[in-house]
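Quick one, tokens below. Sequence please?
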């Protein structure tokens, strides 16, 4: 099926706790998504809030745009916003790289963006961010817990917030949390499922961009100063690299996109909250080490995506069959003894022969890296090498079978250096110093 001609962002309308976002697709007609917030909109939003909602309107659109992957996108409200334009172009191209490639569409896509005049009026005075609260994105996994711990040690008052697609997902997330969650609910247009039989394209969307803007809107309505996400430095590694062509499953978690999105939020209004990723200087290995010091989190967290299907969880905390399960066990094992690991996972994943193909992918011993939110090949190899240095894990299947293959690609001195590098934070100019100081205490 060829790409359609045009996709248009038509309008959004808000009332109390709900906002309706409408789109028009040349091939499949109109779509409307409803967002339910945990806090009410003012009757007359300020221009800062209106422009933030405009950004969210654009980000939510990727879920409907991909149905026909139009060659032209018409967006109202951004003609005077160069930072927003740059973010939107990146979102609909690099952010959808995985989608285009796996749908066998040309990539990079030749997509034209048409930006129209901004018609919003400044109906009310902006809400000034007067408090030192941080609204922290919570996804149930190790990163969320470490982010919250750093914020707490910095002296900030924190609340956790999640974006859900069903009440069942909300219940699962609340079960993984040690604190009450603020929940924002997306109600996807039901037509998006029905058109699958009509030849609609489907695939991965840059969900983190959507979630950032929803939480930024909630924080803006509440007057919170910070919106904190937990995207780490390993999110910058491409999933696929072939010549000059790269695609990153985690593009909307990358430092490059974070800069674009942060700049667009600032451009939208000076009273909008400050967004950043608190784990950006840190590796997955550092994060796992920090999590190992948080017993409450170890008893509750889960990084398995099969818990979060719209119609309910598909597993009991860990499925034991996906790249996220394998990766999480590999990261934690260097810091925990087997007895502690068996309290978290339903079995010894490092001794599970059925997981060896996934571990090979994670370690760069195959042709592909998993299309999933996992760490770098270097981190995985360093963790495997570290497991071989002690008595707890050196006899596991993963070490005996796969370390010899890794050593044909990197020698022990290189792996030792990789391990030490992973334990140290990288230089970072975007993270406020007080958070770096708090992180050093974990």
């Amino acid at each position: 099926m060829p790409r359609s001609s045009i996709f248009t962002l038509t309008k959004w309308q808000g009332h109390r706790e709900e906002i309706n976002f409408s789109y028009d697709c040349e091939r499949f007609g109109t779509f409307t998504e409803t967002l339910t917030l945990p806090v009410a909109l003012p009757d007359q939003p300020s221009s800062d809030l209106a422009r933030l909602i405009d950004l969210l309107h654009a980000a939510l659109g990727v879920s409907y745009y991909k149905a026909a992957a139009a060659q032209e996108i018409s967006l109202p409200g951004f003609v005077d916003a160069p930072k927003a334009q740059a973010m939107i172009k990146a979102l609909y191209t690099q952010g959808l790289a995985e989608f285009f490639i796996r749908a066998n569409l040309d990539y990079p896509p030749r997509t034209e963006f048409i930006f129209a005049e901004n018609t919003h009026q400044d109906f009310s005075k902006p809400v000034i961010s007067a408090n030192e609260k941080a609204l922290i994105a919570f996804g149930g996994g190790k990163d969320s817990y470490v982010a919250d711990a750093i914020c707490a040690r910095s002296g900030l008052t924190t609340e956790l917030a999640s974006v859900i697609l069903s009440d069942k997902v909300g219940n699962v997330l609340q079960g993984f949390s040690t604190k009450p969650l603020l929940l924002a609910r997306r109600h996807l247009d039901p037509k998006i499922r029905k058109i699958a039989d009509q030849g609609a394209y489907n695939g991965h969307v840059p969900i983190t961009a959507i979630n950032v803007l929803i939480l930024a809107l909630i924080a803006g309505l509440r007057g919170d100063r910070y919106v904190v996400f937990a995207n780490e430095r390993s999110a910058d590694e491409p999933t696929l690299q072939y010549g000059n062509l790269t695609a990153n499953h985690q593009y909307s978690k990358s430092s490059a996109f974070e800069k674009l999105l942060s700049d667009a939020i600032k451009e939208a209004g000076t009273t909008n909250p400050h967004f950043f990723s608190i784990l950006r200087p840190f590796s997955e290995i550092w994060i796992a080490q920090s999590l190992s010091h948080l017993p409450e989190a170890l008893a509750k967290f889960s990084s398995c995506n099969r818990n979060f299907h719209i119609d309910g969880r598909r597993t009991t905390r860990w499925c034991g069959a996906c790249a996220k399960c394998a990766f999480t066990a590999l990261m934690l094992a260097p810091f925990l003894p087997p007895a502690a690991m068996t309290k978290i996972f339903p079995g010894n994943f490092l001794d599970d022969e059925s997981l060896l193909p996934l571990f090979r992918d994670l370690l760069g011993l195959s042709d592909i890296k998993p299309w999933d939110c996992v760490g770098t090949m270097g981190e995985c190899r360093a963790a495997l090498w570290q497991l071989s240095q002690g008595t707890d894990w050196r006899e596991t299947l993963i070490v005996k079978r796969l370390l010899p293959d890794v050593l044909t690609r990197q020698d022990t001195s290189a792996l030792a250096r990789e391990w030490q590098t992973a334990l140290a934070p990288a230089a970072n100019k975007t993270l406020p110093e007080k958070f770096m100081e708090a992180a050093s205490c974990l």
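Residues 19 and 35 are 5 Å apart (CA to CA). Residues 310-422 form one domain.
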